[in-house]
Amino acid sequence: MPIRNPQTGRIIGVVDLTGGADAVAVHSLPLLQAAVSAAEGQLLLPALAMERPDEDFLDLCASDGPRLSGKPISLRHAEILTVLAAHPRGLNSAQLVEELFEQPDGASEGTLRSELVRLRKFLADSPFRRIAARPYRLQWQLQTTLTRLWSAMEDGDLERALQLYPAEILVRSQAPGIAALRCRAQIALREIVLDRGSAQQLLRLGRQSADSQLLLASLRELPLDSPVRPLLVAEIEALEA
């Protein structure tokens, strides 16, 4: 079984199991795989000992499309990373297919494997960006708009949450897993702003999402002499017409 350089993928050695009938017993393959994994893990230690780069951030709301630490990334690759970041314990191939494909079929797992090959090549410029298999999971710390949004909401920092979420995440994505994450984030942010948001925060999110209930809540919080009130009343009437 080959041992590969974990940074380049080049074969640098092999683990050989020679012997009689016992050498091909059912437990032999797992033992070989464990030995290879241990060897490759040791080879990776010097790279891991180097100073790590700044934390990766996947921007899901950029106006010109998703970006990984400032670098443009395809929609499908952003979807894969977002789903895996939301499931740190990993997903098997069937689960990942369900998260990514609207109408999965017999070819979907093959398509997914091809996308993962391309994604791994895209990530290969850093030795830290690794995607494990069985199950598929991220092996480095990746922050996304969603993970930072949830952190801000858990900390009660509504201003930061609203700054992080100026628009829908991956607005062009129709992947079921992304749609579910998007819906969950929208509902949570809406509820927390309704519960404890200021007039301006209610107004900002209400206008962003064209939500008359949020705008009405903002209207109730605004001073009676606020010049915004007449405009806000007109907006609410238009939404409810």
From TrEMBL:
Single Gene Ontology BP term? regulation of DNA-templated transcription
Domain spans labelled OmpR/PhoB-type: 70-138
Superkingdom, according to UniProt?
Answer: Bacteria
InterPro entries (UniProt xref): GAF-like_dom_sf, OmpR/PhoB-type_DNA-bd
Q: Which UniProt keywords apply?
A: DNA-binding
GO molecular function (one): DNA binding
Q: What is this protein called?
A: OmpR/PhoB-type domain-containing protein
This chain's source organism reads Glutamicibacter uratoxydans
Its taxonomic placement starts with: Bacteria, Bacillati, Actinomycetota, Actinomycetes, Micrococcales
